[in-house]
């Protein structure tokens, strides 16, 4: 009887040559897929798009930031804030504001004073947008960059690893460096004007840490004196008028010595205690508020009054991190706040 069943090819019935062809096809498909993934990865690495959010107060190039757990847009918490780039003799800075109408309004907000022979593009009366770059060419002016010292603080920390009353220097203090760029105009050898264009913390100061013994015996092992004390925030000795006022104000208003220590640490790293510290990103003042005009909620003198700036700083820390020490803990982990 004839067999009318259709012959079905099975894996078992495949010849060695057929198996070789199948294997070759699979290898080819794998190579093509791998090449596609590699090409995509290479393209992304060469054309990586990064979204600008906001700027770090301590980053001289203004490339990183965080003002909290979630990143915010460059314009900050106020969606109406605009940012415009101003370039003077090749040096750029971002000016932020809420009511920009023309070029002049941007220069006013950035506290940029024009000299009689300055060349400004676009014209002062021209309207501006966030894509606008205002260029100022100043004849006879030089951009002068200088460094100045930022004083370090002395922090005292108690430790049971040292006998009662004994002191030991755990860390020697080291001054920080404040970098300031000024636009200096000269007539011959005489300086006609000098205006600060940008000023930021180049290197933060290192606190001098002194351990204070609280141990009950003189046989305590001083070699391990830094153990538990290193984790403590310690008590900071106020240095200068601003810190003394901040210390007294905080203790009179329910804050602790630890809160003051946290304040000194953050402000020292953000602005070096310069009221007019001005990062190229537009961050301003002791707390490097971005934009600085945010501090107007605490007073119209926010640009020049350190007390107004500090009150805004404490309010911001409480609202964003729950406390000044909460902001301090975040700073230690992220090197910004």
Automatic annotation (TrEMBL):
| Keyword RNA-binding listed | no
- Is the keyword Phosphoprotein in the record? no
Q: Which SMART domains match?
A: G5
Give all residue intervals belonging to the G5 domain: 136-216
The record ties this protein, via Pfam families, to: DUF348, G5
- Please identify the protein, giving its name as recorded: G5 domain-containing protein
UniProt keyword list: Signal
């Amino acid at each position: 009887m004839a067999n009318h069943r259709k012959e079905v090819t099975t894996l078992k019935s495949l010849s060695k040559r057929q198996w070789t062809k199948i294997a070759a096809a699979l290898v080819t498909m794998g190579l093509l897929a791998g090449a596609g993934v590699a090409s995509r990865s290479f393209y992304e690495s060469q054309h990586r798009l990064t979204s600008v959010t906001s700027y770090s107060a301590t980053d001289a190039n203004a490339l990183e930031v965080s003002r909290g757990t979630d990143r915010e847009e460059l314009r900050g918490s106020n969606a109406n804030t605009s940012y415009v780039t101003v370039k003077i003799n090749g040096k750029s800075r971002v000016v932020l504001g809420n009511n920009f109408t023309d070029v002049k309004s941007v220069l006013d907000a950035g506290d940029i004073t024009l000299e009689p022979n300055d060349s400004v593009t676009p014209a002062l009366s021209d309207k501006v947008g966030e894509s606008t770059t205002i260029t100022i060419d100043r004849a006879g002016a030089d951009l002068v960059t200088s460094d100045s010292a930022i004083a370090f603080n002395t922090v005292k920390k108690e430790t049971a690893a040292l006998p009662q009353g004994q002191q030991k220097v755990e860390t020697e203090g080291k001054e920080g460096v404040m970098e300031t760029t000024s636009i200096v105009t000269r007539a011959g050898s005489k300086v006609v004007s000098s205006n600060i264009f940008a000023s930021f913390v180049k290197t933060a100061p290192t606190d001098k840490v002194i351990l204070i013994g609280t141990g009950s015996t003189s046989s305590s092992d001083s070699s391990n004196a830094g153990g538990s004390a290193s984790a403590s925030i310690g008590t900071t000795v106020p240095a200068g008028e601003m810190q003394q006022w901040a210390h007294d104000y905080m203790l009179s208003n329910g804050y602790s010595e630890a809160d003051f220590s946290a304040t000194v640490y953050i402000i020292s790293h953000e602005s070096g205690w310069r009221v007019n510290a001005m990062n190229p990103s537009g961050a301003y003042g002791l707390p490097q508020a971005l934009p600085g005009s945010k501090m107007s909620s605490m007073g119209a003198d926010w640009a020049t009054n350190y007390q107004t700036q500090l009150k805004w700083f404490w309010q911001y820390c409480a609202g964003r991190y729950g406390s000044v020490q909460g902001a301090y803990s975040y700073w230690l982990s992220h090197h910004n706040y």
